[in-house]
Structures are given as structure tokens and as C-alpha cells.
Specification:
The protein has helices at residues 3-26, 35-63, 69-74, 94-115, 121-149, 153-166, 178-185, 192-209, 232-240, 242-246. The chain has 252 residues and is mostly helical. The chain has one domain (3-246): Ferritin (Up-down Bundle). The protein starts with a helix and ends in a 6-residue tail after the last helix. The relative contact order is 0.14.
């Protein structure tokens, strides 16, 4: 694998995370528990879709085969997606969505802080722009973790259960492979081992304030680096890709 191929896969990984999580959050439209939260989750989804657009556009250019961001989003099969399993999990109840968002956004915050220093100017520019949005995502989800975790007995129990159920998907966030090794050596990608320490510290801080217990590290789900996903991604793509596949020449 050369550096260009590694950069394509790395950019695709980042873009897929933003695309799939943005789609998941969009499913809350008109269904959130509060009107204000309906708007907030919609705005988070739009932020993520904007990030996905920039990253997949750059991935297409890096690949050099003339594929656009729309081609990469709508015309790839399930096994070609590289997003983490965490972001494709069903929304569940509101507490589950908040826990998933908190865990991912905190990871994204430290990752994009490092990527804003990347020697790849395009990656650095996208990361710097995205950071402004991600900081809000972390603040928003952290505030809800505190409100729900240190709220009523029911809200506390629901969020703790969600945290316990999701935890097995967090280890994969920090997996590295040949792609990472090549790009870290070139000063383009971030060392996820260093990010994990910062992530763990921030997670511990918020969970402690929210009177929640961090689950013990045990078995961790994995597979996305090789294009292996949960059964849920196929259903997301079936919905998301239907119109572009059914009417490939349509314009709107």
C-alpha cells in the first residue's frame, strides 16, 4: 500500500463516520422529546453531513478515479464502508442516542485537534473547520449526560444501561492498521494511542459528575477496518441509497 492509497482509505474512514452518524441523527427529526432538542439533533446531523461532504470529496480526488462525494456515499456496497460500528447502532431511546453521541464526539474532538496539525493541508483545513462544530457536539452531549445521569432514578438507570450496552463498541475507535502506520510516519494521521488517553480522562470526568459508572473493558466488537459491520448498516444504506440507485440520472 502506498501513501496515496492509505490517504484515500483514511479520508474515507473519517467521511463514513460523519455520514452514517449524521444519517442516524437525522432519524430523530420530529421525534425528539423536546422541540428544542428536535432542532438541536437536526443541527448536529447537518454538521456531520457537511463534514462528510468535505471528506468524501477529498477522498474522491485522492482516489483519482473521477468519483464524486455523491458516488462514494450512494454507490458503494456495505463492505466498502469503513465507518466505526459505534456510529451505525440504532438510535434506541433518547438516552442511548446521547450516550453514543457523547462517546463519539469526545473521540472526534481529540482526533480532529490532532488532525488540524496534519502535514496534509486539506486534512488540516477540514479538521480545523470541523472542530468548531465538534466542540458544540461535545458540550451538548456532555450537558445531557449530566442532566440524565444525575436526574431521576429512571433517567439514571436508562443512561447507565445504554452506557453498558454501547461500551463494547468503543475499543474499535482506537484500532490502527497499515493505513495509520503509513500516514503517521508521514505526519498526516494522528496516533490513536495518545488520543485514547485524553479520551479516557474526559470520559471519566463527565461520568463522575453524572454519577455514572464507567463499564469495565472486556470484549470489544471490531471489524470496520476490514469492512465488516453490524446488520444495521445494510438497513441504513438501503434507505439512504435508494433514490440515487433507482434514478441515477435524476437531478434535484
Amino acid at each position: 500500500m502506498n501513501q496515496q492509497e492509505a490517504l484515500y482509505q483514511y479520508t474515507l474512514r473519517l467521511g463514513d463516520n460523519a455520514l452514517i452518524l449524521g444519517h442516524r441523527l437525522s432519524e430523530w427529526t420530529s421525534k425528539a422529546p423536546l422541540l428544542e432538542e428536535d432542532l438541536a439533533l437536526g443541527n448536529l446531523a447537518l454538521d456531520l453531513l457537511g463534514q462528510a461532504n468535505s471528506l468524501l470529496e477529498y477522498a474522491g480526488k485522492t482516489e483519482g478515479k473521477g468519483r464524486s462525494q455523491d458516488d462514494l456515499a450512494y454507490k458503494r456496497a456495505e463492505r466498502e464502508f469503513l465507518n466505526n460500528l459505534l456510529v451505525e447502532l440504532p438510535n434506541g431511546d433518547f438516552g442511548f442516542t446521547i450516550v453514543r453521541q457523547f462517546l463519539y464526539s469526545t473521540f472526534a474532538l481529540f482526533l480532529y485537534e490532532e488532525l488540524s496539525k496534519s502535514k496534509d493541508e486539506q486534512i488540516a483545513a477540514i479538521a480545523a473547520k470541523s472542530l468548531k462544530e465538534i466542540k458544540y457536539h461535545v458540550r451538548h452531549s456532555s450537558d445531557w449526560m449530566l442532566r440524565l445521569g444525575d436526574g431521576t432514578e429512571e433517567s439514571h438507570n436508562r443512561v447507565q444501561k445504554s452506557l453498558n450496552d454501547i461500551w463494547m463498541y468503543t475499543g474499535e475507535l482506537f484500532e490502527m492498521n497499515e493505513v495509520d502506520a503509513i500516514l503517521i510516519k508521514a505526519g498526516i494521521a494522528a496516533d490513536l494511542n495518545a488520543i485514547k488517553q485524553k479520551w479516557s480522562s474526559k470520559i471519566e470526568e463527565v461520568l463522575s459528575q453524572a454519577t455514572l459508572k464507567r463499564p469495565q473493558d472486556a470484549f470489544m466488537q471490531t471489524g470496520s477496518r476490514k469492512g465488516i459491520h453490524t446488520e444495521y448498516l445494510g438497513f441504513i444504506l438501503a434507505e439512504m441509497q435508494y433514490l440515487p440507485r433507482a434514478y441515477p440520472t435524476a437531478k434535484w
